[in-house]
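Morning!

This is the sequence you dropped in the shared folder:
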Amino acid sequence: MEAYELDKIKVLATSFRGAIEIAKDAGEFDNDFAFPRFPKGCCGDTSNLLAEYLAQHDIYTYYVCGQKGTQSHAWLVLVNTVTVTTDNSDADRKYKSLISVYNEDNDVMLLRKYYNLKDAIIIDITGDQFTNQKCFLYYNIPVYVGFLDDFHKLFRVDQCSIHEPARLWDARCKSLYRAITKYIK
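The structure's back. Tokens below.
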């Protein structure tokens, strides 16, 4: 991946994050159950919303959700930086996840995909929700675009926790997306 491509992604992610903060300050999220506390507790929805925005700019991602104890955290990884195979013989299972994309009940073959995140480019715009927590390394980076770092390594990414981002199909997500994108500069 070229440096200018990463710079473009960082600019887009930063703009999106900034628009969320402006929308929040403007009261756009006052009636939502999660976004008034942004970035706390919003990483899953935010990742899906950001994925939609990046896709509008021809940047495609996978959604990743990791777990550390009882705490989960979600972020995106660039599709073209993830190695995807259908062979489970790889011994390095630490960075692999299994996802079934076809159902045998639908009379189609069960396909297993393994995602290697070791060299993936991460896009995370809610990691700073852990700023005041020692067990999360006091992580205070509001927009992170880069390789797997010590913070993201804290989270166990296991079976079925990597997938295509959710499309904005429900009224809530569509409303959040409209509220955010009207503030993008």
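Headline: Helices lie at 3-25, 43-55, 150-153, 171-181.

More detail when I'm at my desk.
O.
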